[in-house]
């Protein structure tokens, strides 16, 4: 699947481009680089939508925890919340498909990407906060939500 073009306001900073280039030179697989680039763009767009601020590494741990909380619930019926408004904006930008919470594996991957950004020279690992280190997003999302996510995924194919 081809990634949508990113709006200019969410373009990577020169520091982020340099970090991604450095990762590439060290032999990171192409698929991993593409996932990190996409996750970085998504996280930047999410932060801009929620806090009206650009990413700033190292990010505050409260921002990382808010990211997890905003993505661990189904936003379909939560009109007027900042999480719902941000998700709607991400859908408009083509960075998110639905208001439903993402699959636990998707959220786990985004958290892992966040950790990698910090680990690879972006500063202290705020995603290493004790509340996030043990974060298994499958536990955050109840069985009924996982079942609904599988049904949506099959329907969207």
General description of the model:
The chain is mainly α. The chain has helices at residues 14-25, 30-51, 61-71, 82-92, 104-122, 130-133, 137-140, 143-156. The radius of gyration is 15 Å and the shape is globular. Mean pLDDT is 76; it is low at 122-144.
**What proportion strand?**
under 5%
Can you count the helices? 8
Q: What radius of gyration results from the CA coordinates?
A: 15 Å
What's the pLDDT, averaged over the residues?
76
Spatial shape? globular
Q: How many β-strands, per DSSP?
A: 0
Sheet with the most strands, sense and barrel status: none
**Fraction in helix:** 55-70%
Contiguous uncertain segments of 5+ residues: 122-144
Distance N to C terminus: 12 Å
Strand/helix succession: HHHHHHHH
Class from secondary-structure proportions? mainly alpha
Structure at a glance:
This protein is an all-alpha fold.
Q: Topology of this structure?
A:
Elements: H1 14-25, H2 30-51, H3 61-71, H4 82-92, H5 104-122, H6 130-133, H7 137-140, H8 143-156
Question: What key phrases describe this protein's structure?
Answer:
8 helices, 0% strand, globular, 157 residues, single chain, mainly alpha
């Amino acid at each position: 699947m081809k990634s949508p073009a990113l709006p200019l306001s969410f373009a990577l900073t020169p520091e982020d481009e340099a970090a991604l280039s450095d990762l590439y030179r060290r032999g990171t697989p192409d698929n991993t680089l593409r996932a990190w680039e996409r996750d970085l763009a998504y996280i930047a767009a999410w932060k801009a939508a929620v806090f009206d601020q650009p990413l700033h590494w190292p990010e505050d741990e409260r921002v990382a925890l808010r990211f997890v909380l905003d993505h661990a619930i189904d936003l379909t019926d939560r009109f007027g919340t900042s999480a719902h408004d941000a998700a709607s904006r991400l859908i408009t930008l083509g960075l998110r498909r639905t208001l439903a919470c993402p699959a636990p594996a998707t959220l786990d991957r985004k958290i892992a990407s966040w950790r990698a950004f910090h680990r690879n020279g972006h500063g202290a690992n705020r995603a290493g906060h004790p509340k996030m280190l043990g974060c298994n997003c499958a536990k955050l999302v109840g069985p009924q939500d996982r079942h609904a996510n599988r049904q949506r995924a099959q329907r969207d194919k």
